[in-house]
Amino acid sequence: MKPALLLNASYEPLSVVDWKKAITLVLLGKAEMLAAHRRTIRSARRTFELPSVLRLQRRVKVPNHRVHFTRSNVYRRDNFQCQYCAKKFPASKLTFDHVLPKSRGGDTTWTNIVTSCQPCNRRKCSRTPEEARMPLLTNPSEPRWWPFSASAGNLDDHPEDWKPYLWI
Ligand SMILES: [Zn+2]
Known about the structure:
By secondary structure, this protein is α+β, with helices and mostly antiparallel strands. It has helices spanning about 20-25, 70-75, 120-125, 130, 165; strands at about 5, 15, 30-40, 45-55, 95-100, 115. The strands form 2 sheets. A 4-stranded mixed β-sheet has the order 2-1-4-3, covered by helices on one side. A hairpin with a 4-residue loop joins strand 3 and strand 4. The longest helix is centred in the first third of the chain and has 9 residues, at about 20-25. About 20% of the residues are buried. It binds zinc ion (ZN). Zinc ion (ZN) binds near residues 116 and 117. Zinc ion binds near residues 82, 85, 116, 119 and 120.
């Protein structure tokens, strides 16, 4: 059965909950349903829509989550897309590139590392994007924490309904 994305009252993603928890939150009036999966659940007395996106009625305080800086989270942030040629690749075909080359003092941080395919990485070599005339698709930044960061999938694997809430 499909899970639901749970948002805080302020619309920040909090977690992914299973369908039973999702329905319970709605029935208890603790959350409102913003989107439903295209299927229903029948009990003896009534039919429920299966929530896809829920929003809590009252805001809960959450600790300041930070996304671990790892190779796979960089790929996920960049949607498995080479930031130079814009093509998508499986993780095994990707590498990461220092925007300001390491040899010139570039550090290994969220704001200086981008996903690159191997040919683009070789082509750029130890030049800046300007010098190499290889403009970046997006400026690298530290991503917001997202509730499925522990899962191996990328954004394309998640329901359409969720996408507006995952990258604000
Ligand atoms: Zn490329």
